[in-house]
User: Which sequence fits this backbone?
């Protein structure tokens, strides 16, 4: 259940998939990246990040592998799969359609 | 296809749940260690439970837990168990008995193909046209003449007899 104040409902999975496009990341890095890229506007709580990641794994949109990080720590990295890329495109399309409709309504109504 | 693959993946989580839960724990500990303020991570036990929810087997855990709890509770009160079982058995038994009777007598036809069974009777030619019986010779003629129509024919007759009602015999009517 998304309950982050900083994220519009239903967008968390899309954002996670999006930041994984460039390179595989572990959970902490995903949260950091979302915060940095949004200039601190969007924040992901651990309480909703991990359920979302498990959901992405079950759906087969990401794959997880353990790796030793540069600081010598064992981290679990998530990598986007082919079906994850398709899903991301579908979600972005749906998101643009929705925000476009809302924009039109805000201007015209 | 995607749904089937997802289900198989879910099954994998069920079968290897120990390992998966362990991975979740290690992953969250690693995350916590990276944070500036690890306390901000929150309750890992609760977070793990919420994350596990995505695997879709929490209902199974709940079911097992509830069943165990019910079993323990019932073992401590055998009298209640016996009462409950007897009550259920009586209730179900009586209902099955009643339904068997109603089903046999009222719901199902008493014989097969009831639509093919007809009754034949004579009718008076008088204006009031009352229903009359058929004589035995007429019945025999009827039987002989309708072999291509009816597969079977049967006749019945009514006889009135007197019964002793306590004050000696009261003969009412006797055939012949």
Assistant:
């Amino acid at each position: 259940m998304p309950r982050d104040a900083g994220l519009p409902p239903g967008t968390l999975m899309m954002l996670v998939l999006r930041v994984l496009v460039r390179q595989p990341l572990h959970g902490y890095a995903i949260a950091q990246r979302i915060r940095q890229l949004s200039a601190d506007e969007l924040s992901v709580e651990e309480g909703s990040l991990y359920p979302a990641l498990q959901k992405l794994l079950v759906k087969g949109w990401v794959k997880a592998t353990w790796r030793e990080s540069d600081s010598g720590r064992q981290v679990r990295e998530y990598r986007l799969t082919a079906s994850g890329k398709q899903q991301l495109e579908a979600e972005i399309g749906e998101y643009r359609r929705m925000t476009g409709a809302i924009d039109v309504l805000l201007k015209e109504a | 296809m995607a749904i089937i693959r997802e289900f198989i993946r879910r099954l994998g989580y069920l079968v290897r749940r120990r390992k998966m839960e362990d991975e979740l724990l290690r992953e969250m500990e690693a995350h916590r260690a990276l944070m500036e303020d690890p306390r901000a991570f929150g309750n890992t036990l609760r977070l793990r439970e919420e994350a596990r929810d995505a695997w879709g087997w929490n209902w199974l855990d709940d079911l097992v837990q509830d069943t165990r709890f019910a079993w323990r509770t019932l073992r401590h009160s055998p009298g209640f168990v016996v009462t409950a079982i007897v009550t259920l058995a009586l209730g179900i038994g009586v209902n099955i008995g009643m339904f068997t009777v109603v089903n046999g007598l009222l719901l199902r036809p008493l014989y097969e193909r009831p639509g093919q069974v007809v009754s034949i009777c004579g009718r008076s030619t008088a204006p009031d046209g009352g229903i009359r019986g058929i004589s035995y010779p007429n019945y025999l003629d009827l039987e002989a003449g309708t072999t291509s129509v009816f597969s079977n024919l049967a006749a019945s007759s009514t006889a009135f007899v007197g019964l002793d009602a306590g004050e000696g015999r009261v003969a009412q009517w006797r055939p012949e």
